[in-house]
Amino acid sequence: MLKKIxxxxxxxxxxxxxxxxNVVYTWVTVNSSPEKSPLNPKISLVFTDEAxxxxxxxxxxxxxxxxxxxxxxxxxxxxxxNMLPIKFSSDVPFAPAQGNRYVxxxxxxxxxxxxxxxxxxxxxxxxxxxxxxxxxxxxxxxIASDGPIxxxxxxxxxxxxxxxGYFHETFRYTVPEPGSIALLLIGALGAAGTYRRRKS
Length: 200
Fold this sequence. Notes:
2 domains
């Protein structure tokens, strides 16, 4: 029984210590209208905790499927209107639309208040957009797609953009400190000892 408790505790501690230390930033729309595309997009960026702690996150991924890039960006999600979402995860190869060459490039300053500054360029072979910021306020400088983006931006429109917003920290994954894991192990051993004494 003691052996089982120790093994289970070690597995739990190992799982916790291996948990991702990531920080999620979500887009909040400030000005989006039929004249300013895209209309109410859903965007999230996830960076490593190390990058956030340093105050800067950068990445520059340019390759052909199925290459797997690396960098400060852990995940990206973008979707607006009826278009298919763009999804990126550093855990799996990026799959550009139609197998085309992709571009995923950005550099972000990270403020102590949890806001981002900087710029982003994304092209998955079907949809491409760029955005840049003045302070913490981002503007879509350009967005185009082979499919419809929204009512005012069709595939024939190559100069859509203008929507503004900002990225703000919404969630943070934390890794247990070594001291807390040690306490977990000590507690489990103590519980095991108590169990054995009661059994005998």
